[in-house]
Amino acid sequence: MLLLRSVLFNTAFYTDLIVRMIICSPYYFLVPRKAAWRVPKGWAKAVNWLMSKIVGATFEIEGLENIPEGGCIFAPKHQSAWDTFALLPHQRDPVYILKRELTWIPLFGWYIAKQKMIPVNRGARGKVMVEVMKRAQQEMANGRQLIIYPEGTRRAPGDEPQYRYGIARIYRDMQVPVVPVVAHWGLFWGRRKLVKYPGHFKVRILPAIQPGMDPDAFYAHLIKTLETASDQLLIETIEANPNLPLPPTAAKRLAELRAQPVA
């Protein structure tokens, strides 16, 4: 049954994406950029609905009040394709730094260009990255929210963290609040996994880290904040979903946390 539901979901997911882009294109490309957000945000809501109705996976969000009014940086833990878009309906005007290859995909790449996303060659250095940061500053000056994954790529739930120092440099240069976000999407929609799992979990938006800290101090504080919250939420998520099959990384981390002495 799990496999059947997963196949049905994957079919519905890609069918909805393709049909929606084709049907909505006239509206999307003719209206102003901010108004055009209705299309991808509507798609994100549809995917969340499909996950709920077909797979049986649902989530709730805590801490929406922690999102600043103006420009800011979202710094989520990254586990799944799901977490790249599921929160779109709750983000006013997000901007992503993304790999340039995505802009080469027919139609999808045009959607990205419409929203003025920031493509980058992952191997780029020097002047190219300076231009990327300049673009990011310009977008956030207009009140947009920059989405950055501090670990750079998807990590399995409970896996050893591998943070990149680039987030500290961006924090130093941008001078805007950083909003840490944790959730264990990967327990329900794993990386490169066909099967999706039912259950209910929380997404926790933590209080913003204000600008002005020393970059090294900020980097250490961000890691501690994210990892502490992620560990706590891992325990909560697994306790709320006792029949959920765990990837080895999550099972190992859970055992480690339960073995720790109670403070």
UniProtKB/TrEMBL annotation:
Pathway: Lipid metabolism. Residues 72-186 form the Phospholipid/glycerol acyltransferase domain. Keywords: Acyltransferase, Transferase. It comes from the Bacteria. One of its GO terms (biological process) is phosphatidic acid biosynthetic process. InterPro entries: Plipid/glycerol_acylTrfase (IPR002123). GO terms for molecular function: 1-acylglycerol-3-phosphate O-acyltransferase activity. PANTHER family: 1-ACYL-SN-GLYCEROL-3-PHOSPHATE ACYLTRANSFERASE. This is 1-acyl-sn-glycerol-3-phosphate acyltransferase. The lineage of its organism: Bacteria, Pseudomonadati, Pseudomonadota, Alphaproteobacteria, Hyphomicrobiales.
